[in-house]
Amino acid sequence: MLQQTWTSRCLMKFYAVVAASPTSWENHKIAERIEQRILNSNPVMEAFGNACTLRNNNSSRFGKFIQLQLNRAQQMTGATVQTYLLEKTRVACQASNERNFHIFYQICKGASADERLQWHLPEGAAFSWLPNPERTLEEDCFEVTREAMLHLGIDAPTQNNIFQVRGKATPLTCGSGDGQPLS
Fold first, then answer.
1. At 17, is the pLDDT very low, low, confident or very high (cuts 50, 70, 90)?
2. What is the Cα gyration radius of the chain?
3. For residue 45, pLDDT beyond 80
4. pLDDT over 70 for what percent of the chain?
5. What letter does residue 139 receive in the DSSP assignment?
6. Torsion of the alpha carbons at 7, 79, 163 and 157, rounded to the nearest 10
7. Please, are residues 38 and 66 in contact by the beta-carbon 8 Å criterion?
8. C-alpha span between 56 and 78 (Å, rounded)
9. pLDDT tens string 80-106
10. C-alpha distances in Å from residue 70, one per residue of 34, 61, 65, 67, 97
11. What global pTM score does this model have?
């Protein structure tokens, strides 16, 4: 678990304990359910927003703002999570020895043969937007991402629409047209 995820979890637990009435088991359960939904969003946000960089195998390329919602009695009643993708160019161009967002590697390594066919990802194909695929990281666990998506209400047909490659993947170059990455 990432340090920022751990910190968020500790703060939510602390607030849930402080804000919940000691006589209200229902309020405690609501706070736990909210906390669990926020934590279930982390594998999804990390898959779609983290990448392997030169300095860190699981570097966040997004920002996250969590707003806890309270009622007049200061009891947790809900939460919103806003994410901000900070590095959109990573989809098309990565520095040498870096990787694209984790989700692309998760799909290519974790999809079944039938899914790869359905999603237009032929076995053994090389994609210009998928550099350094031979590296295997702990973050390459596709099942964890899919399970988290299910917990968040993203059903299997919707996941299939998300993972399907639309059109033909074409080679991409970065920089000034010389094929070299931007520094």
1. low
2. 19
3. yes
4. 77
5. G
6. 140
7. yes
8. 33
9. 878 776 676 776 778 888 888 899 899
10. 12, 30, 16, 10, 45
11. 0.70
Q: What is the largest CA-CA distance in the chain?
A: 68
Q: Identify the CA nearest to 61 among candidates 89, 81, 97, 85.
A: 85
Residue found under tokens 């053994």: 124
- Distance in angstroms (rounded) separating the CA atoms of residues 83 and 96: 27
Residue keyed to tokens 């999570």:
81
b/e per residue 158-175 (b: at least 16 CB within 10 A): eeeeebeeeeeeeeeebe
**CA 8, 11, 13 angle in degrees (round to 5)?**
105
What are the tens digits of pLDDT across the range 140-176?
899 999 999 999 899 999 999 999 877 555 433 343 3
In 50-128, alpha helices (H): 102-110, 113-118
CA–CA separation, 116 vs 142, rounded Å?
Answer: 13
- List, in sequence order, every residue forming a beta bridge with 65; answer none if it has no partner: 82
H helix count then E strand count, the chain: 6, 4
Q: Are 34 and 79 in contact (CB under 8 A)?
A: yes
Mean pLDDT for all residues in the chain: 77
Q: Closest Cα partner for 125 from 138, 136, 142, 111?
A: 111
> Are 86 and 61 a contacting pair, CB within 8 Å?
yes
